[in-house]
Amino acid sequence: MAPLLQQVLRRKPVEAYAAEGEAGGLRRTIGLAQLSMFGIGATVGTGIFFVLSEAVPVAGPAVIVSFVIAGVVAGLTAICYAELASAVPVSGSSYSYAYATLGELVAMGVAACLLLEYGVSAAAVAVGWSQYLNELLDNVVGVAIPEALSASPEAGGVVNLPAVVLVALCSLLLVRGTSESARANAAMVVVKVAVLLLFVVVALAGWESDNLSDFAPFGLDGVTTAAGIIFFSYIGLDAVSTAGEEVEDPRRTMPLAILIALVTVTSLYVAVSVVAVAAQPQERFDGQEAGLAAILEDVTGSTWPGTVLAAGAVVSIFSITLVVLYGQTRILFAMGRDGMVPPLFARVDRRTQTPVAGTVVVGVAVGLLAGLLPIDFLAEMTSVGTLVAFLVVSVGVMVLRRTAPDLERGFRVPLYPVLPLASVAGCLWIISSLRGITLVVFAVWVAAVLAFYFAYGIRHSRLAGTEVGR
Amino acid sequence: MTLLVGVTHDERCAAVVHLAAQLARSAGEDLLLVAVVPTSWPPGPGRVDAEFRRHLAASADAALGRARTLLPDDVPARLVVHHARSAAAGLLEVAEGESTALVVLGSSAAGPLGRVALGSVADRLLHSSPVPVALATRGYRGEERVRRVTAAYGATAGGDDLVVAAAGVAARVGAPLRVASFAVHGPTIVTAGAGFRAEDDVVGTWVGEVRRAQQDVLARVAGLPVVPPSVDTVVGQGADWGAALGDVPWDGGDVLVVGSSAVGPVARVFLGSRASKVVRHSPVPVVVVPRRSAVSLAERAGHPAGAS
């Protein structure tokens, strides 16, 4: 039993990561303003364009509070991420942090969460995209894609074709090259912030205080459940922390940038949700497709603001899908190189310098999810994956303080150990409020990934060879 | 074989003549300096633009005369004025008539100094020339001989043939061969959460693969009957193409050889997007080789007796 235990607890030395990077020392080039913008760009828009119709029926107008709770928990973990990122300067997100600090088995568990977080949220976002695309088509040319081709089987359709097409387009762009993708993304980030500001300004005209009167019809339970659903709107915050070794003056910059991004994004979300729930009675949110656009149409009595918003949403959600798919392929790349998944994922095309095979596999898998599963289920699955990954990172910070107290850290979590513990507690709180079926499916998924690990990864792991040699 | 030189009556003239002289001296070829004059339209005894045509003919003569004075005495050269629909078409017609090994052109005056910039004629020829096209950087002042041949490798299919062809040429002119690949670290999509270094790892893996491939192709070069005096490999990395090319050391006397794309007409030069970026950012003269030409040059390198 002991050798098995040794195997699953083996850790990838930080020096090994450094050797793989090969590109040499990192330059500290990223400043506070730039880093804050990264965080804001990464976070805004993921969920806000369509998550209200999922969250309001659960929480009522108190969804505003849910946004704040989800934001605070995400912020706490982002700060924990920041310490790990500055101590273990590697790519591959929390999978790599876990591999370097907690061992192979935990890393594989985290990988399961990340695959869920990235793969499923790409699918969830693509499904939301299809709603806005339909809205846009209906407004502009008066034609909507037939139900059979724009809804998942459970919702009465055959396949969600626009979502599948979106995933295919994004995969194609990623295969073409990284710089093309990055440029397309930057432009789309600008569009989405502008569009949300437009929504706030226009929808303010429809303010109706009565809509807020029954503020929390389902009490605290409803508020936390909604926070769980909303949570994945904030997963972009950890983008800030991945800059770990590349920011100037990390001790000051990292927490400040996370705070600035957090406050900005939460304000924007709260502003949007406040004017949204004030403009429309809560009952109408239930099952409403392309909700923000519909609200604008009701408020103004004309279709143009809704059209503009839908167009903006179509553009900005495209960028989210692109980015999340990108993250997914790069994490699988790191895993492929460690031998945790087949080397196919770590193969780089000679011509385009991108992992083409891995991108295609991810595109097909995410396309299937997006085409066949309903959005609320997808959104919840994403949240539980993210929450568990965040949980492991928060624990990882405390473990690493114990196991490697002398390791150089560019940034240290303030108020240790209160903040990591609060982060753990916050994650557990939101997880406990998720629906039972979500947790069961999640457990099955993690078990499946771990089964794959014991069947494949444990023997193909790059570290396996070194172990035998010893 | 002849090196065909497109001569114009402007600042490009000096750069292109200097490059042509350097190439001719190194390869032991002679030069054919060509100035193209537009034919009148419709062809016939039209006299309306006689004065204009006289002016063009005089300016072509002046351009050739100036080119001749710029040319060192030890390089044999013939001068030709050719009438054609356009400069590009005229150069191609002459190239077909003579047994041309290479067309030499200058950079557009609109480009930055010390860089290759494609003017309209060069652009046209890069899409339609059946023979390699050499492009001088803007303001190029030339060297005595070609001191090193650098083959850009890894960007297109058929890259191995190009390296072997370049090796053959390098062996013939007695210059060392260098195989150079360029890795551009695209900006990471910062919002992906996979880490700011995710792209470094991908590029790092690519670099590892391309280094192995470079060794493989050098093994092929080592098997040639006549090999260059020395071989070397290098990988330039940077945030963009300019930085990646700048990451590689360059000397006077360097010539960069770039292959055409796998897409497009097989027989002709047709620059792929990556090859054209390499061309545009090259600080040294570039020779663009059409794919079929690379294959036949590679075969010649394998059977040098037939070539001489």
UniProtKB/TrEMBL annotation, chain A:
Superkingdom of origin: Bacteria
InterPro entries the record matches: AA/rel_permease1
The UniProt record lists the keyword Transmembrane helix: yes
GO CC term, one of those recorded: membrane
Annotated keywords: Membrane, Transmembrane, Transmembrane helix
Major location category of this protein: membrane
Protein name as annotated: Amino acid permease
TrEMBL record, chain B:
A GO term for molecular function: ATP binding
Gene3D superfamilies per the UniProt record, alphabetical: HUPs
Start and end residues of each UspA domain: 2-135, 147-290
Keywords for the protein's UniProt record, in alphabetical order: ATP-binding, Nucleotide-binding
InterPro entries on file: Rossmann-like_a/b/a_fold, Universal_stress_UspA, UspA
Pfam families the UniProt entry points to: Usp
Family as reported in the entry's similarity comment: Belongs to the universal stress protein A family.
Designated name of the protein: Universal stress protein
Source organism: Vallicoccus soli
